[in-house]
Amino acid sequence: MPRGKYTNHKGRNRKFTSPEELEEQRKQEELKQKWRKEHGPSSSEEESEDNKSGSGSSDESDSDDDQPAKAKGVSGLIEVENPNRVVKKNKKLNNLDNLGDGEKPQLSRREREEIERQRAAAAYQKAHAEGKTDQARADLARLAIIRQQREEAAKRREAEKKAKDEATKKR
């Protein structure tokens, strides 16, 4: 035990809920909800138990979303139209899943430029391979000149070789 008035909680053991326990709790909640649906809202003890646990049923939360929030104090009496005020709307999980399907994610300027750069480079490589770019034409002309020079050099060597062979045969 630490001495003194204040205790330090650092380094103490922490207890984490295991996935099995979480799954068991979820199954228990489902069983309770199923039982309640079968038997109906008959007693107030169950309702008070729901309030203590803090979970509440999904039916109750749906009805709360439909009603506008009750204004506190004088703000309900004074109507103010503030264009900068954003009213936070709670989004339901199933609606969030549906919203993302139709739209493409917005790309940042850098990402768009990078994709555009990659497309341009791929198009240039394709045109270069087909010989449509100026650089490709210059490369092909250079290669043709080198090929021609090598062919001429090979003919010259063959002619010199034949001349040597004829000179050795004459002796």
UniProtKB/TrEMBL annotation:
PANTHER family named among the record's database cross-references: 28 KDA HEAT- AND ACID-STABLE PHOSPHOPROTEIN PDGF-ASSOCIATED PROTEIN
Annotated region (Disordered), positions in chain: 1-136, 150-171
Biased composition regions of type Basic residues, renumbered to the chain: 1-15
Residue span, Casein kinase substrate phosphoprotein PP28 domain: 82-163
Protein name: 28 kDa heat-and acid-stable phosphoprotein
One Pfam family hit: PP28
InterPro entries from the UniProt entry: Casein_kinase_sb_PP28, HAP28
Biased composition (Basic and acidic residues): 24-33, 101-119, 127-136
Coiled-coil residue spans: none
Domain of life the protein comes from: Eukaryota
